[in-house]
Amino acid sequence: MNIYLAIIIASLLATWFLGVLSDRLSAKAMLPAPPKELADVFDEQTYAKSQAYTLASMKLSAVSETFNTLVLTLAILAGGFNLLDIVVRAAGFGPLLTGLGYIGGLALISGVLGLPFEIYHTFGLEKRFGFNTTTPGTFVLDRIKGLVLAAIIGSVLVAGLLLFLRGTGQYAWLLCWGFAVLLSLGLTYVAPTWILPLFNKFTPLGEGELRDKLERFADKAGFELSGIFVMDGSKRSTKGNAFFTGLGKRRRIALFDTLIEEMDADEIVAVLAHEVGHAKLGHIKKRLAMGILKTGAVFYLMSLFLNSPGLFAAFGMEHMSLYAGLVFFVLLYTPLSLALSLMVNAVSRKHEFEADAFAARTTGRPTDMISALKKLSATNLANPTPHPFTVWLEYSHPPVLARIRALAAHTN
Q: Is this prediction's pTM over 0.85?
């Protein structure tokens, strides 16, 4: 049996199995009553609803992942990747346009196959539990905008990679690495101004107690903000959130309007303090460095396997090409990608604990962060007791119960 085919199929099945195992373990780890630390926000009805939401989400994820794994496995074994290559080549375009057509075709097929699950998630699952506020028009418009944006950015990225790989010899991976990193940083820089407003409305936070408290904290922490904005998150969901976006002087904080409705000013200050903690403690720079190094490792490994005849034979390809090699390497890379994601998530969870501690220390009010976490957990119907295996496998943030217990140490 082709060794590449064996690795890819085994990786797909192993990833699927780990997901199923994770869901089963977390389902069994659910408690009959909420932990005592959350009893004040999870009454009996809310806790039962959170369990039902968690189980329903698990079932949808299991069906989706099973479907995707089955379709991809069949496509590989039945020669589907070669069939698409034949169709695209028949158009008679040059190597670059053919490559863009091939990768774009795969992305489009993947999107179409995943659309029914997205529709059910939004208008079935999320609506049933009272979260969805998305209209059909907004949903369709979001998908059209996302498709156009992905086509533009994806075409620039893929075209650049193919041009470098074709014309720069054995060190092409270095140029691909640099190009991908620069493109990513550029998108992060312009996202607040050009990309995010395509999907949401960002309004400067008005004068008042909340703005005064947020600005006072930022000044106290020595953290410069280019702006504090309210995002119309209620346009799509009742769930609350907050995030930083942009780089350098274009860095700004966005508060969901739903978050402002759910929390008082001191709790929102604690949320801001947590996000500021990530910047002041160097987490953002560390994550950026990790991402850049990871990208470099990926391109180096890609250069070793990109032109391997065995890799193309695993997919039943009649012709070898750089564009197909890129796709096949992504699938071959699955085991290493999983291992790296486990490491990255472990570091991320550590950073979240540190940012929580920073918020508790700098505000002098750890109870505000605890209260904010409790409210988010209850209003978002989060599962407060996921199994440790699920946390290890999937979570970039520690479970809310672990964060509350860590913060409680700062109240003594």
A: yes
